[in-house]
Write a structure and sequence with these properties.
mainly alpha; 6% strand
Length: 106
């Protein structure tokens, strides 16, 4: 997220990454139908759900209109970067690979 957005979250009481992670996990929700209507969720998480691994199994057993959490707190990483020119942020599914210094390649 852009530093502009990071400051706005801090002003709203999310002054640590963990507080923001917890908020994101609690508020990133979808009806189960929409959650499972995603090729990566089907490919990567459905096998876990079928094997009975929670919380994925519970999401798989949810009724189509039942609201489910998209992410668990342990699955969320926060990155703040940018030149304060675009006050934007987005939550999406991805895999953490490594941390790199943005300044090192400028």
């Amino acid at each position: 997220m852009d530093p502009i957005v990071a400051r706005l979250f801090v002003e709203r009481g999310m002054d640590t990454k963990q507080k923001l992670i917890d908020w994101c996990a609690a508020n990133a929700e979808l009806p189960a139908r929409e959650y499972w209507d995603d090729q990566w969720v089907q490919t990567l998480l459905r096998p876990l759900a079928v094997a009975g691994v929670e919380p994925y199994a519970g999401r798989l057993n949810a009724k189509p209109d039942e609201i489910v959490q998209m992410f668990e707190p342990g699955e969320i990483n926060i990155a703040v970067a940018g030149g304060e020119a675009q006050g934007a942020w987005k939550m999406f599914g991805a895999r953490y690979e490594r941390t790199i210094s943005i300044d090192a390649w400028r």
